[in-house]
């Protein structure tokens, strides 16, 4: 019996400590791939209103990309981000000899309510001891809990031709720290890209 309790506790502990961010869907253009190396150069754009957050997001994504990757905040001012013409971005991509563009943005925030069942703890030995330990029984009632889900979409385009080649959406549940959530999103996205066969080659250390 004790071993069963230990097993259940271990499973619950692992679930509780798991990452709060998961990939919920992804798509890859058939035949498309991104080979990590100097032949590819990617402009990373975080479409975030807050400039500090934008820089943090772009920097964290670039850390996980091998080859040449450039943060958009080094080329696009906050003013250009708010109202840049498509032709302006096209000129930057052409002049910078970029081969790919990676964009990430928050697409939705929703709430999800679920029921957490109550629990009962106590002694489950023979009936005699059960009776004697009756006072040691404790019951906690069930309750409803509301989670806030942040849906973030990441897309990758080739510059020439201008074409979507990979897209993925992550769900982050009740994020508390910006940097931790960004790291989880970046890890989830790059892992999924590899699983989809989109990223090839050796990751940069």
TrEMBL record:
Q: Which domain of life is it from?
A: Bacteria
Q: Which organism is it from?
A: Pontibacter ruber
Entries under PROSITE patterns matching the protein:
PROKAR_LIPOPROTEIN
Question: Which protein, by its recorded name, is this?
Answer: DUF4136 domain-containing protein
């Amino acid at each position: 019996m004790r071993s069963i309790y230990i097993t259940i506790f271990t499973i619950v502990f692992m679930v509780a400590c798991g990452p709060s961010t998961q990939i919920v869907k992804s798509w890859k253009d058939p035949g498309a791939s991104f080979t990590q190396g100097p032949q590819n150069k990617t402009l990373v754009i975080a479409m975030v209103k807050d400039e500090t957050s934008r820089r943090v997001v772009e920097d964290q994504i670039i850390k996980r990309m091998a080859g040449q990757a450039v943060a958009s905040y080094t080329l696009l001012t906050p003013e250009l981000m708010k109202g840049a013409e498509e032709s302006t971005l096209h000129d930057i991509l052409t002049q910078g000899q970029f081969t790919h563009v990676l964009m990430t943005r928050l697409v939705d925030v929703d709430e999800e309510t679920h029921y957490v069942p109550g629990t009962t703890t106590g002694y489950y030995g023979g009936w005699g001891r059960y009776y004697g330990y009756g006072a040691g029984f404790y019951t906690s009632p069930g309750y409803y809990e509301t989670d806030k889900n942040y849906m973030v979409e990441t897309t990758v385009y080739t510059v020439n031709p201008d074409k979507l080649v990979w897209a993925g959406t992550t769900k982050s549940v009740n994020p508390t720290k910006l940097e931790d959530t960004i790291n989880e999103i970046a890890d989830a996205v790059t892992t999924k890209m590899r699983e989809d066969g989109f990223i090839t080659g050796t990751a940069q250390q």
